[in-house]
Request: fold
Amino acid sequence: MTRFIAIRPRPYDTWRMRFALTIMLLGAVAFLPLRADAFDLEKDLKAQHVQYQGEPLLQVAQGSCMSLSDAIESVRSRTGGRVVSAETRVSNGREVHHIKVLTEDGKVRTHKVNGCRR
Reply:
């Protein structure tokens, strides 16, 4: 005569898994990148370009030259957006100002403005 013994599986303890999953999710949220505040960066850029209030140290003879601060103001007035970053690069003996602007729809657009010849 054979006997069958019913082996009952252990009931699942879900609290350990729930606790571990909760800790993992909270840890993942802690490492998510936060939104960069473009307004503070714009103030820093403006402070860098307006820090010298005396006479200009170097005047360029060309009338069509545009400085970085002039280019920033020009792009800001044309687009109505917030300036995120601005830098000047020299390419083929000519300065080119690269200005990144945060538009109202949340996109960042790069504008290139010709500067002076070197």
In short: Residues 37-49+65-118 form one domain. The radius of gyration is 30 Å.
